[in-house]
Model the fold of this input.
Amino acid sequence: MPPTGNFTPEKTADGSFTFFSAEFGETFHSVHGARQEAEGKFVGPTGLAVKALQPALRILDICYGLGYNTAAALATIWAVNRDCHVEWVGLELDPAVPEAAIAHHLLDSSPAPIPQLLTELVQSGEIHTDRLIARLLFGDARETLREVCQSGFQADAIFLDPFSPPTCPQLWTVEFLGLAGKCLKADGVLATYSCSAAVRTALMAAGLQVGSSPPVGRRSPGTVASFTAAGLPALSPQEREHLRTRAAIPYRDPQLCDSAEAIVRRRKEEQQASSLEPTSHWKKRWLNRAFS
Ligand SMILES: C[S@@+](CC[C@H](N)C(=O)[O-])C[C@H]1O[C@@H](n2cnc3c(N)ncnc32)[C@H](O)[C@@H]1O
Done:
């Protein structure tokens, strides 16, 4: 892996900050705002404000990054119920990312004691307090997620926040999302910012029902998934049709160890051999409907 230590905070529209990843060629958040995305795409759609009425919650944060999603989750939970006991596991490839977020004080506007707790978490990898038990696992999430599954961890909420599917396909495959599903409680909710048909199909292959989360900042919605459809915002007819086009052919990584290039190539070959409708036809049909 090339050196990744040089992260410079870039201001987003809501006043929070993001980084640019030279390795992946993407910013870590949308230009509309890291905090807005954390609240609107992850904390809101997983229903944490209501779940926080329970005495205890379990959260799995896939791609911890700068820590915005977790900081927003803890703030919401403890604003509702300061005694809610949180058991938390986070997965992140590159320790330099959360370390840089702490060094630049990016989470300092979260309510106390969240900045102190997350600083300690990043420095020591784990925390045990009377209301937070947390472990931050560094490495490829394809490996660390296996560990989490084997430990029997069952999440009330999963945040799925990798870089985009074409850039980081290894964390959006049928096999990886199958593992994520194994760590989700029967009534738990997984949320992601992506509305990609390939991602939705992969979640469905894991036995999950999928719904649309409201658009935040940009026009496109995100996705929520759960084993029960109750409470999931339904997909629109246009989104349901999208799932019957070639765009819905998911990424696959049979042994959970292929390179991004191999995973992208495998999907492209499957798309070329497919008898599903080309996605361009679906796009054109819905464009015509919009103007008729
Ligand atoms: C979009 S950012 C996540 C932003 C983050 N959720 C937040 O609240 O700031 C994606 C993160 O995925 C991490 N990542 C990339 N590949 C990974 C992998 N194979 N396993 C685990 N993490 C990975 C990157 O280092 C980056 O921090």
Notes: The longest strand covers residues 184-192. The radius of gyration is 19 Å. The mean pLDDT is 95.
